[in-house]
Design a protein that fits this description.
The chain is mostly beta strands. It has helices at 78-83, 158-161, 164-174; strands at 23-31, 34-39, 43-48, 62-68, 71-77, 94-102, 105-113, 115-123, 127-128, 142-148, 151-156. Pfam families: CheW.
């Protein structure tokens, strides 16, 4: 498996589509039948799938937590996050540890993917804006569409996909902790 460069991490800001010759590196991976990419600056490491501790009463896209060198790291099933259907664990399933910015804090979150492909350089000129319709995932999850070898790779806005605030709200709803309107 390719090991990402352990250089300083970015914040996962949205890609600026179609701008000049600014070439960036992306880790590509598959989830279901789709190919996705995340900026390599957000990737800390890639680990084998396993040793997950399930947490009761969580939404189906939160597979559990792992102990990563003494730190508790939540693992998100991207297939379930995008489609609501839990992904089956396969031979090449792995966990990509990414770093996201939450307020003034950097958090490590694991994303479960079907298979890691490779690290690619995609020039800014080969990145199209996110489509407003027709994608199999929410439009706000897409930072852009990278053209690689005549095919499109969905470049994820990892900050939106792994929005801790949104996942907290979804978890509370899943646990039935949302407030009922008064007088109802």
């Amino acid at each position: 498996m390719p090991q990402p460069n352990p250089s300083p991490r970015g914040t996962g800001a949205a890609v600026q589509p179609g701008q000049g010759g600014d070439t960036r590196q992306y880790l590509t991976f598959s989830v279901g039948s789709e190919m996705f990419a995340v900026g390599i600056l957000n990737v800390k490491e890639i680990i084998e799938y396993g040793n997950l501790t399930e947490i009761p009463m969580m939404p189906n896209f939160i597979r559990g937590v792992i102990n990563l060198r003494g730190a508790v790291v939540p693992v998100i099933d991207l297939g379930a996050r995008f489609s609501g259907r839990i992904s089956a664990v396969q031979r090449r399933t792995c966990i990509v540890i990414v770093e996201v910015q939450q307020d003034d804090e950097k958090l490590d979150i694991g994303i479960m993917v079907d298979a890691v492909s490779e690290v690619l350089e995609i020039p800014g000129a080969d990145i199209e804006p996110a489509p407003s319709f027709g994608a199999h995932i929410r439009a706000d999850f897409i930072a852009g569409m990278g053209k690689v070898a005549g095919k499109f790779v969905i470049i994820l806005n990892i900050q939106r996909v792994l929005s801790v605030d949104e996942m907290t709200v979804l978890t509370q709803i899943g646990q039935g902790k949302h407030e009922a309107p008064h007088g109802a």
